[in-house]
Structure formats: structure tokens, C-alpha cells
Amino acid sequence: MPRNIQRTAVILEKEILRSFSGLDDIKSMVMDSTKITEWPVGSGRYIAEKGEVLGKVSGGSKIMPIRMGAFGTGAAGAWVAADIVGILYYNVEFWLGPGITAGAATDEEVAVLHHGCDFNIAFLLGYTGNETITKAALPTCLFR
Questions:
Q1: Strand (E) positions, the chain?
Q2: Are 27 and 117 in contact (CB under 8 A)?
Q3: What is the pLDDT of residues 47-78, one digit of tens each?
Q4: Cis ω for the linkage preceding 40 (within 30 of 0)
Q5: Which of 57, 64, 87, 140 places its Cα 20 to 30 Å from the Cα of 105?
Q6: How far is CA 94 from CA 35, 41, 57, 97, in A?
Q7: What are phi and psi of 85, to 5 degrees?
Q8: Contact 66/53 with Cβ under 8 angstroms?
């Protein structure tokens, strides 16, 4: 039996949904890899976590987690309800690092929940502090 093996897990799966209506609640969008930061810091991994509130990157059709920075279309780069597109349905790891720079070739297609969902706010990232705009952008969803 092998010895001295160390395994570490970075992400624990969490249930962000209390319920949702069906597949019509999911849309496919492209996440901008240049807007993703290293997480955990110092790990060399670039991860967008399940439950991230997502917004449109200003000047394009791509999206990003709103907690990663202020790249919305509102005044002074602040996020507004029109920027919010939904909630990330699953974890996405971007293959970036030495010799692999972020760009169009490393962008990822992701599933976004946006309609008729009942979210568990305890597991949403970027929701705290952005409750009002998230609820306004997703009026058919429940947040509790």
C-alpha cells in the first residue's frame, strides 16, 4: 500500500438550489477567462465556483463572476441589475498558468441558471451586498 501520499480537496460540493422548474431554466454562455483570478490564492488554480452570481462583461457578450471585480456597464464600473445574467450551475476550472495565458482560446462555455429557480442564498457567491440588483435581474427566482 502506498505511503506518504497527501491529497487535498479544494471545493466541497454545495447545493445551491432548493428547487427549479426544468431545463428551460438553464442557458449556455461563455465565461471570460481573463476575468478569473487564482483561487485559492497561491494554488495555481483558476476556478469559478458553483453558485457565483454572474454578470456581463462591459463591451462584450461574455460573462464573469461579479465578485471578481467591477466590470459592469453602470457608472464607474459598478454592477447594475441589467448586468446580471444568472447564477453559475456548476464548478468550472480554467486551465491557465505558466505558458498558458488567458484569452479567447481559454474561455469556457458554462451553464447559467436564470429563471424559475429557488436558490439557497447561504451558498451563493457575490450575492451578499448585491441582493437588490440580483433579485431585480432575476424576478422569477426565489432567494431564501
A1: 17-20, 26-31, 46-48, 53-56, 63-65, 84-88, 92-94, 108-113, 117-119, 142-143
A2: no
A3: 999 999 999 988 889 999 998 776 666 655 58
A4: yes
A5: 87
A6: 11, 14, 17, 9
A7: -110, -20
A8: yes
Looking at residue 22, its pLDDT comes to 73
**Helix (H/G/I), strand (E/B), else coil: 36:** coil
Q: HSE of 24 in the Cβ direction (CA atoms, 13 Å)?
A: 3
pTM over 0.90: no
pLDDT of res. 42: 81
Picking from 50, 39, 38, 52, the residue whose alpha carbon sits closest to that of residue 10 is 39
Three cell numbers at 54?
454572474
> What domains can be seen in the chain, in order of their start residue?
17-143 (2.40.300.10)
DSSP per-residue codes, 53-84: EEEEPTTSS-EEEGGG----SSGGG---GGGE
pLDDT attached to residue 88? 96
pLDDT at 82 over 80: yes
Query: How many angstroms separate the CA atoms of 16 and 121, rounded?
Result: 7
